[in-house]
Amino acid sequence: MAFELQMVVATTLILLVLLVIQGGTVPLNQGLIWGLGSRDAPKEKSAFQGRAARTVSNHIEGMLLFVPLALVIVAAEASTSLTALGAGLYVAGRLAYAPLYLLGVPYLRSAAWAVAVTGTLIIAYAAIIAAL
User: Fold this and answer.
1) Positions of the chain with pLDDT under 70
2) Torsion angle of alpha carbons 18, 19, 23, 29, nearest 10°?
3) Burial 54-65 (b: 16+ CB within 10 A, else e)
4) CA quadruple 33, 36, 41, 43: dihedral positive or negative?
5) Which residues 6+ apart lie within 8 Å of 33 measured at CB?
């Protein structure tokens, strides 16, 4: 399997972990009965739940950019050491960003986000070159 596809799997697994963390906070904060119910009457979320929701949202947004580009690279058989670097940077950045954001760590989380975006930009550049 191409390294870029391995990184697609890795970023999907990161999302799965984030969703489990986000969902696991409901019974702890709002109660199991409310969590299993229809949730028609909203309850206030904790600060951690808000960060978890934003982390999931941000991760999905990043995946919407990275995954299609990585698939284009693999489909075009355009994998290079540069695309592997981009994919690795993306996943490393996401792996660092998620816990930093969940724990409310400023500055470092932005640096980790920038690493992931740099990886995405590298993959985008390579996909554009492959399309020409």
Assistant:
1) 29, 31-35, 37
2) 30
3) ebbebbeebbeb
4) positive
5) none
Encoded amino acid at 95, one letter: L
Tokens for 9, please give them. 């799997």
Q: H-type helices in the chain, by residue range?
A: 3-29, 32-36, 47-75, 81-102, 108-131
Question: Is the Cβ–Cβ distance between 87 and 33 less than 8 Å?
Answer: no
Measured distance CA(113)–CA(107) in Å, rounded: 10
Place of tokens 């993959």: 123
Whole-structure pTM value = 0.91
pLDDT of residue 40: 72
The type of residue at 99 is: P
Q: Are 91 and 7 in contact (CB under 8 A)?
A: yes
Q: pLDDT digits over 55-85, tens only? A: 999 999 999 999 999 999 999 999 999 999 9
